[in-house]
Design a protein that fits this description.
By secondary structure, this protein is an alpha+beta fold. The protein has 2 domains: 88 residues, Ubiquitin-like (UB roll); 81 residues, Orthogonal Bundle (DNA polymerase, domain 1). The chain has 7 helices and 6 strands. Strands 1, 2, 3, 4, 5 and 6 form a 6-stranded mixed beta sheet that branches.
Length: 188
Amino acid sequence: MSTNNNVHSSEAGIPEGMTAAVLVVNGDKYPVIFPSHHTLLEVLREECKLTGTKHGCELGECGACAVLVDGKPVLSCLQITTAVIGKSIQTVEGLQQGNDLHPLQEAFADLGAAQCGYCSPGILMVAEALLKEEAKPGDEQIAEALSGNICRCTGYNRIIEAVKWAAAKKRGDGWRPDEALFMGDEIP
């Protein structure tokens, strides 16, 4: 393969219109051959077998397909794969380290911020990008960062609280959401 991890069809007998490459996803190398017009979403799910990234609207409007490319959120349904060859790609599968959940995954599960879970991978990835840039984001910053992610099951309040809680966990402080979010309000 050439130095840019990309082999064109004329170089290796690959059929016209196909691209062979080695993608670096979650720190692992994935040798793939795919139609050159395929989106990153298609290649991640079909060639790399990483199905955590969800196939939502295909229009860049729901955010379910968000991944990180060189640490920045990208809607994989709109990103042509050939443009990210040689870049670092992170999917939701790359958050968990062994048996240890990422603080975002832990906070979402403990607080019940995810319901059906379809939107969660995209939300987690966008939130991860935010927390890499801002150690203590406020409600408005979180809402702005997640504004491209649609969740049809929640009212977003628990999602915002879970992101704040994950940020606190990453900082190592003891802040946690109000107990009423876990148990509900007392009956008068």
